[in-house]
Amino acid sequence: MVEALDALQLRDPALRPVARKVLDDARLDAADGLALYATADLLGLGRLADFANAARNGDRVLFSANQHINPTNVCVLRNTCTFCSFARMPKEEGAYTRSLEEVFHEAEQARGMPTREFHIVGGLHPKLRLSYYTDMLRGLKERHPHVHIKALTAVEIAHLARVERSTEREVLVALRDAGLTSLPGGGAEVFSTAVRATIAERKLTGEAWLRVHRTAHELGIPTNCTMLYGHVETAADRIAHLTMLRTLQDETHGFLTYIPLAYHPDHNELGEELGRIGTATTGFEDLKNIAVGRLFLDNVPHIKTHWPMVTPFLSQIALGFGCDDVEGTVVYERVYHEAGAPTQMHMPYPELVRLIRGAGKRPVERDSLYRTVREEFDEPPPEPLLRRGGLPVVHAA
Ligand code: V47
Fold this sequence. Notes:
Blueprint: H1 2-7, H2 15-23, H3 30-38, H4 42-57, E1 60-63, E2 66-69, H5 100-107, E3 117-120, H6 130-143, E4 148-151, H7 154-163, H8 168-178, H9 193-199, H10 206-218, E5 223-229, H11 235-252, E6 255-262, H12 269-273, H13 283-296, E7 302-305, H14 307-318, E8 325-326, H15 349-358, E9 362-366, E10 372-374
This protein binds ligand V47.
C-alpha cells in the first residue's frame, strides 16, 4: 500500500487519505470529493483517477461511430435557460423545425459510413406531439436497421408527457416500442435548486430528472448522465450532484457513462451576465472534472469526454486522467457551436482511432449499449491530422 501510494507522487497531502481509499477500492464521501476539487495537484489527481480507471477498464478506450441530429431548436424554455445558446422562440430568427422527410434526409449521411448510433436531441417544441418522434424513430429504423437510436433527454420526455397528458413511463414505452435504444444524459445541468433558479428556472427539477432516468432504467432502457460545470455552481453543488447520480446508480445500475459538460458562455444571457463572453472553462477545470467524475462515481462503468466542447487535444489528454470513453464521429453539432465552441463538427473515424492510440491507449469501437464492435484497425496515416482548434490539416495533393 505504501509503495502504491508513493508511486502516485502526490504533492498535496490532502490527497493522501483519499488516495488510500481509492487504493483500497473504498467509497469516497463528500469531504473526499471536496478535497479532490480543492487540490491544485492536478497531476496527482490525474494519476489517481488513471489508476481507478485502469483497474476497471485496463487500457481500452471506447468510441462510437455516431451522428448527431437536432430536429428542432424551438424551445418553450428559450427565455429561462440562460446558459443555452441553441434554443429559439418559434418565430425568432434562426428558429427551425425539421419535417420528418428532412430528418430522414439528414440521416442519409449515415449510408456508406460506419455509423451505428443516431444521437437525437432538440428543444421543447410547444406543438410537436409524441407521434412526431415515434414516427421519426420508426422511419429511421426502417431505413437504417443496424443503427441504434439514443434520443431525447429527460427534459424532453417530461415535456412530451405534459403535451400528451400522459405519464413519463407511457412516453418511454412508446419510444422504446418505436426503436429507442437509450437516453442521452443532457438536461441534468446541476441539480441544486439554487443553481437551477439562476440558470434554468423553469426546467424540470433535479428530482424529476432522476425520476425519468429511474423509470427508463426500470423499463430496461439504459441512459447516460451529465453535469454542466463552469458557471455559477460551487464545488459543494457538484459533489451533491454526483452523489445523487451515484445513489440512483446504486439502485438501478442503468447509467452507462458519465459526461461532464463544460459550459460555453458565448451567445447566451448567462455568459453576458457573468462577463464571460469568449472565456470558456480552463483545461485545468476540464481535466479535474473528468478525474473527479472517475473517482467519485465508483459505480458508473465509463467516463466520457465530449471533444466538441473541450477540443480533441484536451480530450486526448483526458485519457490519462481517468477517462475511457470518447464522443464519436458526431458529423454535425449544433448545441455547443451555437455557444462558441471553436472545434470542428465532424471527427473522421481514423482520427478517433489515432487520437486514442496517440495517448498510449487501445481504441475499441462500441455500440450504444457499450458492446464491442471492433478492436482491430489499420494503421492510421502517420502525419498529424488535427491542428489547434480542431480543424483538419489539408494535405497538398
Ligand atoms: O443539457 C446547453 C448542455 C446538453 C450549453 O448522453 C451546454 O452521450 C455548454 O445531452 N454550454 C445537451 N453546454 C447535450 C447532451 C449530450 C452531449 C454529449 C453527449 C451526450 C450523451 C449528451 O448540452 C444540455 C446542456 O447541459 N448545454 N447549452 C452551453 N452553452
